[in-house]
Write a structure and sequence with these properties.
- By secondary structure, the protein is mainly beta.
- It is built from one helix and 36 strands.
Amino acid sequence: MSTFLSFPSRRRLSGAPLLGLASALFALSACSDKTTEPASSVSSIAVTPRVTDLRIGATQQLAASAFDVAGGAVSGKNFVWSSAEPTIATVSATGLVTVLKAGSTSIFASVDNVSGFAAIVGSSPISTVSIVPLSGVLPPGQSVQLVYSTTDATGGLILGRPFTFTSSAPSVVTVSNTGLLTGVAAGTATVSLVTEGKTATVNVTVAPLAPVATVALTPIASTAATGSTVQLTATLRAADGTLITGRTVAFTTSAATVATVSATGLVTVLTPGSVTITATSEGKTATATINQLVSGTSIVVAGPVNSTYNFFILVPSDARALNVTLRGAAGQDPDLNVFAPGAAAATCVSEVDGPNETCNITANVVPGLWRISILGFTTYANVTLTATVTTP
């Protein structure tokens, strides 16, 4: 007979701890389903304003903002403030900067091992301010820029400070916030510049400009070879002889094929011959001549076939005769025509064979600028031109 042992109570008892284990595992599983959001990490810090220029003793409140890697704002951060050069500028725990001396430094805001900074420039206070006095008068309707400067106690130039300009009589002269004066009506006014408690003034007289009474050109006569230049200078004066500057002067040439003239009076000689340059300002004129012939003085001329070159000589009112000659070597044939002032037809024509031509004028020798034309019947060179005026 066989005996069987059974443990029903053990089977029943073992169920309780298994149920407890399952409950625990379920609880752990339930806990693992809950996700905890990690705190956003700071990637960058911005400090504003980024750059500040302050006088010694002045203060500036800075602000800091934190951002994550995606550029989103991170709030709730307490920043630690510090100065790279505390001897130049200090910063409080709340970001208030105080400038102690001239120089530059960086102010840092830090949190979570990340920093941002702003630049602080300490500048000396303005010690002096000055305005360059105006020369002459300011015409109504015209403008002029004031020239002014500011310096510190050591004489060093200070830039970038705000200014205030005022005019004591805006009906006479106005002034912009950059120091541009504009004349309004005749009179006088004082223009003031104020900055950091320092003041400078300048007196301004508004009046119509004196008209140009005379124009003079120098040199009044000159000689220049083909291809060379001559610089002319125009001098303007008022009726009382006062020198006038800043007016417009127009230059013109009597023969652009002989010589040109620039807007500044630079004459460029293109071909042989004489030319008159005229300077005009406000209806007043002056003239200068280039390569004008001098009585009794010879010049050497040359030219190609079919060329025409004009030379001039001034004949005075008491002249009795004008003698013009061409002299050169054989084998060439320039011709000679001489014209009285303003005349279209030649007073004398000399067209003999060879280079030796002569015009001797003794009748109707009127005063003025006589024109002497050399025509190249052939190519010629090293030919001497002489014009002589005979006076009592």
